[in-house]
Specification:
Oligomer: single chain
Helix content: 55-70%
Number of strands: 0
Order of helices and strands: HHH
Radius of gyration: 13 Å
Structural class: mainly alpha
Number of helices: 3
Mean pLDDT: 61
Number of domains: 1
Largest sheet: none
Strand content: under 5%
Distance between the termini: 36 Å
Low-confidence stretches: none
Length: 71
């Protein structure tokens, strides 16, 4: 499995955010690192949305819930 440079960068940002306990920043970093991108899509094209039942959505929803509880 190949990991692109931007994915590594966003995951490192997520780890840093979690270590600083910034839930809002960690939530944003998680969304950016988990958002799939088509290799041929321009940066202005809409992002692909995950299916509702996916594990990724569960993670994102949990992070948003945590952010709302703390904020």
């Amino acid at each position: 499995m190949k990991i692109r440079f931007m994915e590594i960068r966003s995951l490192l940002s997520l780890a840093k955010s979690l270590s600083e306990k910034s839930v809002a920043t960690a939530t944003l970093a998680a969304i950016l690192s988990l958002s799939p991108r088509s290799p041929s899509a321009s940066k202005f094209s809409p992002k692909i949305i995950f299916r509702i039942g996916s594990k990724v959505n569960a993670i994102i929803i949990a992070l948003f819930s945590l952010h709302r509880l703390i904020g």
